[in-house]
Write a structure and sequence with these properties.
This protein is α/β, with parallel strands linked by helices and 364 residues long. The chain folds into two domains: 7-59 and 160-336, Rossmann fold; 61-157, Rossmann fold (3-Layer(aba) Sandwich). 39% of the residues lie in helices and 14% in strands. It is built from 14 helices and ten strands. It has helices spanning 7-10, 37-43, 61-74, 87-99, 114-122, 134-147, 158-164, 166-175, 190-201, 232-235, 257-267, 276-290, 300-310, 354-363, and strands spanning 33-35, 46-51, 79-83, 102-108, 126-130, 151-152, 181-185, 221-227, 270-274, 319-324. α9 (190-201) links the parallel β7 and β8 (221-227). α3 crosses α7, α7 (158-164) crosses α9 (190-201) and α8 (166-175) crosses α9. The chain is globular and about 65 Å long. The model has no long low-confidence stretch (mean pLDDT 97). It binds ligand F0G. Residues 59, 61, 84-88, 155, 185-191, 248-249, 295, 297-298, 325-326 line the site of ligand F0G. It comes from Nostocoides jenkinsii Ben 74.
Length: 364
């Protein structure tokens, strides 16, 4: 019987820095690339959704956590630490458990989604809610990583980027070549850095010694999207009090800022801001027209694509991939708000009125 073996084993020859590390895996990666017909028709291009919510802990972080924890195990680490807006902590807690390590996580108080909080707790992490934002948490985590014998597993850890670059490989493998444009949300900017690294390494003639040539003939433009209240790269300066309902990307001073700018500039791409309203509209569009349920931050990629389309910036018939980074069940409450902001409550019916009510619903 065959099953997907996880990103380290599937792409071993392209992950030379993992050589000799034990493979700590929950069989992450291998996520579907889904053609989005309605969205394609709307923007006049061929749009695919890379559904990263289908990773073992429900977000793309697992791709980088299998590598980060495997390298930590090779280093002999007994404990790991991270700062997080929620998904990194959920992933770190799960992979640390798999490796038999302890895990400490620092999260901004009151600003992480319930699903993510419960994951970290379920996997036995030491969870501290810090009276500050993500940027404060990361600063503290970095210092603790230096002062104590623990490995920092945020995306400033190069092993994280190595694992996350495999998403680009999968996209090229599925499409037969790189897309023309790749859209994704930007928070701490590790993922845009990783995708760009992956695309560069997966073209013919990349010239990296010991790593085989890739099948792609081109590299995409990288289009990154930040939430308007947390858009330091767009503004050109750090944001002291980042705000957005997309708590996963509520970040004011991204660690991989320069790498994100490099990806944007060398790919001929763009990094723009989208409002919370645009994010929620894209969130609803994905669930109600494409059958894909994501957490709000993930919808920033699609919100951004729609924004560029509205400005006339989407080339006709381009092949476009939008990464949606986390599952809708991470933060399900948003689906229960209607278009007008009213709360959606399922209709109550007496037992003998059910069939009439169902018939009415099926007609509507
Ligand atoms: N989407 C989701 C669902 C995320 O959780 C994150 C980051 C991003 C997008 C942005 O990715 O930081 O690589 O630019 N979440 C981190 C965390 C910060 O702690 O879980 P990025």
């Amino acid at each position: 019987a065959h099953q997907w073996r996880g990103v380290i084993r599937e792409y071993a020859e392209r992950l030379p820095t993992l050589a000799g590390a034990p493979v700590i895996t929950l069989h992450e990666g291998g996520t579907p690339l889904i053609e989005a017909e309605k969205l394609s028709a709307r923007v006049g291009a061929r749009v695919f959704i890379k559904y990263e919510g289908l990773n073992p802990t429900g977000s793309f972080k697992d791709r980088g956590m299998t590598t980060a924890i495997s390298v930590a195990a090779r280093n002999g680490a007994k404990a790991v630490i991270c700062a997080s807006t929620g998904n990194t902590s959920a992933s770190a807690a799960a992979y640390a458990t798999k490796a038999g390590m302890t895990c400490a996580v620092l999260v901004p108080e009151g600003k992480i989604a319930m699903g993510k909080l419960s994951q970290a707790i379920a996997h036995g992490a030491t969870l501290l809610q810090v009276e500050g934002n993500f940027d404060d948490c990361l600063e503290i985590a970095r210092k603790l990583g230096e002062a104590y014998p623990v490995d920092l597993v945020n995306s400033v850890n190069p092993a994280r980027i190595e694992g996350q670059k495999t998403a680009s490989f999968e996209i090229v493998d599925a499409l037969g070549d790189a897309p023309d444009i790749h859209c994704l949300p930007v928070g701490n900017a590790g993922n845009i850095t990783a995708y760009w690294k992956g695309y560069r390494e997966y073209v013919a003639g990349h010239g990296i010694s010991g790593v085989p040539d890739g099948p792609a003939t081109k590299r995409p433009q990288m289009w990154g999207f930040q939430a308007a209240g947390s858009a330091p790269i767009v503004l050109g300066h750090p944001v002291d009090q980042p705000e957005t309902i997309a708590t996963a990307i509520r970040i004011g001073n991204p660690a991989s800022w320069t790498q994100a700018e490099e990806a944007r500039d060398t790919s001929g791409g763009r990094i723009e801001a989208v409002t919370d309203e645009q994010i929620l509209a894209a969130h609803r569009l994905l669930s109600s027209t494409e059958g894909i349920f994501v957490e709000p931050a993930s919808a920033a990629s699609v919100a951004g694509l729609l924004q560029v389309h509205a400005a006339g910036g989407v080339p006709a018939d381009a092949t476009i991939v939008c990464t949606v980074t986390g599952h809708g069940l991470k933060d399900p409450d948003w689906a229960l708000n209607g278009v007008d902001g009213e709360r959606i409550v399922p209709t109550r019916v007496p037992v003998d009125a059910v069939s009439a009510a169902v018939a009415l619903g099926l007609e509507g």
